[in-house]
Amino acid sequence: MIQRVETDTGPARVTWHRSAKARLVLAVSHGAGGGIEARDLRALAAELPAHGVTVALVEQPWRVAGKKLAPAPKTLDVGWRGLWPALARPGLPVVAGGRSAGARVACRTAAELGAHAVLALSFPLHPPGRPEKSRADELLGAGVPTLVVQGGNDPFGRPEEFPRGSYELVEVPYGDHGFAVPKRAPVDQDQALAVITAGVLTWVSSLG
């Protein structure tokens, strides 16, 4: 089911993949350079509803409007806040999630919106080649249980670059920022996606 949601930055869109016996909602948004067709978002939407998790794929207003460039972080946060009532309406705990820029939004707003937890896919710890421009404070400041799923070769931050913290981290071997793996890698693309879905499922199953 596709739902249009009005926000202060324009209409957004939520594509619902409902679980027949849902116990929580996982709401995940896209990054600054793509939409909900990302391979990891599609994989989660296909796998998790069978395990009691309704997946809501969120398209920010700028994507719905057909723009190619994401707005400033504060504008992204406004759009996400405007979407939140629709995500919470089923009356279930909501895990705020996203990939890349969407993960940053989820971390920045989790505490104020009352998110049950945060799923950060391909968290952009720093711009490529600029480790001194760390965004670790956003991740560490989420204030709720957090899972980071990170490609082993992500130029925005490899798993070993992440600081210590109370979050959990799942590494996708050989994955880049989009979790693509090289053809020469000892794991194929399907195996990489299975690492993501299994890691997220194990984590959401552990949430109280």
Summarize the structure.
This protein has helices at residues 39-47, 61-64, 73-88, 101-113, 136-140, 189-206; strands at 2-7, 10-17, 24-29, 53-59, 94-99, 117-121, 146-151, 168-172.
Could you walk me through the main structural features you see in this protein, from its secondary elements to its overall organization?
The chain has 208 residues and is α/β, with parallel strands linked by helices. 31% of the residues lie in helices and 24% in strands. The longest helix is centred in the C-terminal third of the chain and has 18 residues, at 189-206. 39% of the residues are buried.
The Rg value, from CA coordinates, equals 16 Å
Overall average pLDDT: 95
End-to-end span in angstroms?
Answer: 28 Å
Low-pLDDT ranges: none
Helix proportion range? 25-40%
